Amino acid sequence: MAGGARLAGRVRVTGAKNSALKLMAAALLATGRSTIDEVPDILDVTIMSEVLRRLGCDVSYERVPGTGGGRLTIDVPEKPSTETDYDLVRRMRASISVLGPLVARCGSARVALPGGDAIGSRGLDMHISGLERLGATIVSEHGFLVATAPRLTGTSIWLDFPSVGATENLVMAAVLAEGTTVVDNAAREPEIVDLCRMLGEMGARIDGAGTSTITVEGVDVLQPVAYTTVPDRIVAGTWAIGAVMTRGDVVVERAVAGHLTVALDKLVDAGATVEALPDGVRVAMEGRPRCVDVVTLPFPGFPTDLQPMAVALAAVSTGTALITENVFEGRFMFVNELVRLGADVRIDGHHAVVRGRERFSSAPVLATDIRAGAGLVLAGLCSDGITEVQDVHHVDRGYPDFVDQLRGLGAEVTRTQRPG
Ligand code: UD1
């Protein structure tokens, strides 16, 4: 892509990847046909569709042109099979979210262990100990987690950390358990609220979604549902930061300001104009942004998924910023790529000290994961020449139509290789 672009115009955000994947897993909890709208047209959804197919579901996707998303129809058999292979879990860690629904629904599940990840070791201990507290027996054998439980029983669970994935898995298990489950120190992300809302429409009895204490009253059976995915706050945040970095003016359609409060406040501190509109958010920037410190935390804190973009923003702002990563230990690995673009960043443990400079200096760089890739693309827009981001298939996993949307906002971007 060519540097020097100013992102301006309107861009539409479809449903959240991190929600849609879990809504798809949740569909397993009811026999019959569920539909989910605003499901992003991305590789991870294709992989999750394949996970569900191998479990015996009929899955079809109908793209809605011009939206980045579409309708996913999932027909769940009365007796789904219960095994998810390594070839799929390896490609997408979120496949692990079928564990809870399968144990709850079928009394057993055999799900491959995900293994390593480019943003640090990502444990499953809270998923496992929580399911054990619900009465499941879990063993790890030959690279698989094997869970069995004739019927789960409600209990109280305290999470050591408000893990998004563990909260989701445990809530999806608890909805069909016998009795009441209380998950304490639960994650409060909008995607958790979205999942609980869908489960509620399926007939589950859940209280407290969006707070640290979620109470689930088990029911015997759930019904299929027609549901619409919550808008993607991380994609929305990426556009918002891109607008500031390129000193542009962007209306992010369907962005929910309340899902991005801290991130938008940081942009205001950086000098941007942020305006909540009835169906979106406008972000505009004149002149060079100021450096602002950022600390990633579970929701409602600054999202770790926007940390690479925050580092990229600071790298072209005036002054010095301290960026602290508290959620994933390996999440500064991409910084070496940003340094190739001339960024002045020093890492010390989970802190990054970023000294801003006027522009990046274009170079070929490597996307190491979805969000790092998006951060590098934004950096490329602020470079002094042509920047080539390689392994861009990572970005495709989180950003439907990214190149088209960038072009729509005025960037000069071309894709030289198709995904896969
Ligand atoms: C989800 C999101 C990811 C986002 C993250 C935090 C999806 C598909 N991914 O990931 O984009 O960055 O939330 O907002 O929704 N941990 C343990 N043991 C566990 C579970 C987690 O130690 O049993 C640790 C992880 O290693 C990590 C931290 O807790 O350091 C946060 O993980 P978690 O909130 O579970 O993130 P994910 O659900 O994996």
Notes on the protein architecture:
It is a single chain. The chain is of the alpha/beta class. Helix content is 30%, strand content 24%. The protein has 2 domains: 183 residues, Enolpyruvate transferase domain (UDP-n-acetylglucosamine1-carboxyvinyl-transferase, Chain), CATH 3.65.10; 202 residues, Enolpyruvate transferase domain (UDP-n-acetylglucosamine1-carboxyvinyl-transferase, Chain). It has 14 helices and 22 strands. The strands form 6 sheets. Strands 1-14-16-15 form a 4-stranded mixed beta sheet, covered by helices on one side. Strands 3-4-2-13 form a 4-stranded mixed beta sheet, covered by helices on one side. Strands 5-6-8-7 form a 4-stranded mixed beta sheet. The chain is globular. It starts with 7 loop residues before the first strand and ends in a 12-residue tail after the last helix. Bound molecules: uridine-diphosphate-N-acetylglucosamine (UD1). Uridine-diphosphate-N-acetylglucosamine binds next to helix 1, helix 5 and helix 6.
Which ligands are bound? uridine-diphosphate-N-acetylglucosamine
**Largest sheet composition:** 4 strands, mixed
Q: What structural category characterises the helix and strand content? A: alpha/beta
Task: Give the proportion of residues in helices.
Answer: 25-40%
Report the CATH topology name of the largest domain: UDP-n-acetylglucosamine1-carboxyvinyl-transferase, Chain
Shape: globular
- What is the total tally of β strands? 22
How many separate helices? Answer: 14
> What is the total number of structural domains?
2
Name the average pLDDT.
Answer: 95
Low-confidence stretches: none
Indicate the CATH class of the largest domain: Alpha Beta
Order of neighbouring strands in the sheet with most strands: 1-14-16-15
CATH architecture of the largest domain: Alpha-beta prism
CATH homology superfamily name of the largest domain: Enolpyruvate transferase domain
User: What is the alpha-carbon Rg in Å?
Assistant: 21 Å
Strand content: 15-25%
| Distance between the ends | 20 Å
